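FORM 7B: Structural annotation worksheet

SECTION A. Query
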Amino acid sequence: MKTAPRFAVIAKALVGPALWVCATNLLAAALAAQCTNVTQVPNQTISSGTSCYSNNGTLTATGVTINGSASVNFVAGQSIHLGPGFRAEAADPGAAPTTFHAWVETAPSIISVSPSGSSGMNPVFTVTASSPSGYANLTEVQFLLNTTVSGADGCYIRYSGTSLYLADNSGTAWLGGFAPGSAGSASNSYCSISGSGASVSGSGTQLSVTVPVTFQGAFAGAKNQYVIAYNTEGLDSQWQQMGTWTVPAPPPPDFDLTTALNTYSVPLGPSTATYTVTVTPQNGFNSPVSFSATPFYGCWYAVFNPSQVSGPPWTTTLTMSCNEPMPNTYFTTVYASGGGKSHQLTLYLAVAQSQQTYFLSTSVSPSGWGIINPPSGFYNAGTQVMVTAAASPGYQFAGFSGDLTGGSPGYVFMNSYKSVTATFTRLSQVAAPSFGPVSGTYSNTQNVAITTTTSGASIRYTTDGSTPTSTTGMPYTGPVAVASTMTIKAIAYKSGMADSIITTATYTMVVAAPTFSPAAGTYSSTQMVTITSNTTGAEIHYTSDGTNPTLTSPLYSGPVSVSSTTTIKAMGHKSGMTDSTVTSATYTITLGVVAAPSLTPAAGTYLSAQTVTITSNTSGAEIHYTTDGSTPTSSSPLYTGPVSVQSTATIKAIGYKSGMTESSVASAAYVIQGATSTRREYIRVGDRVIAVENVQ
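SECTION B. Predicted structure
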């Protein structure tokens, strides 16, 4: 919780090259007399680095050697005793310096806590601490309210640097961290502190910290006021008790009993007296409250509704039916009890002599064109009643008639039955605005002009669907650019005239459907198809596989090459506009008919196997064929070389080429007959020999 030490020199004496020894100017005997709380610096040799030893009382060093490049600081609140065996050696010439400082610094002290010795729930405490080296030498002030020096279960406040903190319930963690005078605050179960009203000031040797504190009811009782302060050298004042403070116990739960009107006036004769009684809980009161009362003289049945309240709005209505025979003022007492608490409330009933009243009739003509106040009703004789009139929009007040004439307001003296009529006339109405172009569907930005035929009238309009008035909406100063679907509402107005009706125009912006050039059709050569839309700035998406295009389909950026039969579909898109319809164009590309295949040798009867060559006069055409007499297709065997015909067979062939119509089917039948041979055999029958020939 303390900042890094800062040491102030009290006295200096040059001991050796680059070696400073600082000590108190007290006599040795005086030093020895003050050594009541001696702290021994561990015996050691310090040759490098930076070391520091401190004590609020006396610091003693005996078997300590300081040399080399070491830098050592001794700090004490009372005295420093360098005993036998202490050596501070100067460095060799040319080496890093050896530095030793011995400081005797007075520890901080606590001056006061104000207020003290009193009590309260919301005190503003000012704690003052002092340092002989000046208030800026104080780094931290801690203020504790508790029965012992313990941050646990207490109100433990800390000012450090520039911020205020409050310890949590356990006293082990700091809450807050806000500047005095700020809107910050911190709370635990025992108290809260706030930056508002807090301040810090310093003058000379004294630092004062002011903190507003609010105690919790659970912290009730006498508390000690403890303070400790720290300085930059790491010395502290130790905890000092500066007084006591008593946190009062919270008052017990209770309630107040009130009424907004404690005197109710009624005329002679039958009447009803009504009072509203309110319970206001105090200090956490939350018990049911019951009511009772004795009726006024001349009244009966004191009825509370409800007869008991137990929560918001904590109100009841007391009603009494009365029939007072004479003027007088009567009183009764309302008794309320609950939660061990009882309260009383005195109510009064004032009975007055009956007074003459007269009826004032007020009306509007024509009905609905304005309003008149007050409405019709009875008034006491001798009363002067103010009558006012206000016109409805589009109308103007023309004056009063009947028992009152002139403008608004007027006054009627009630000494008899009175009748007043407020008359209104219709204002001339500004001509309704018109739009050009009119509502409709468009494929390009429209500049919409809004006009009225009423000379000198102004126009206001909206484009967000809201309704314009003579004071709201955008003033019309020139044509409105409509680049996306939009609804415009407009009103025209002019001083001394009724506002026009609201007119509306809706402009639906749809991207123009794409067109193709050249148009769909049958062509004998490759076509470069251009796709366009009449909507400026629209982008076009298209497909060439027959599917409908979407925004993820290819974006048109230039003519599309069509070298075979293809269907192109396209759509137009533009932000703020409805996508166009999908348009389609089919291009049938016919580049000619493949020449029918020819077979060599020609069809016929042969005595031996034949090798058949199949050709087409169409360059680049491929030939498919069959040898089983079936009609060939593109899936039949592809001709790649002469076909060997070993036995009778029929070859059929067809030619194909991309972009051309397939050829007609060519056919050739090959009959293979082998060479003729004769075989003669002889058969003996009896005495005869028969020759038999077998011709193959």
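SECTION C. Observations
Residues 1-37 have pLDDT under 50 and may be disordered. The radius of gyration is 58 Å.

SECTION D. Sign-off
Analyst initials: ____
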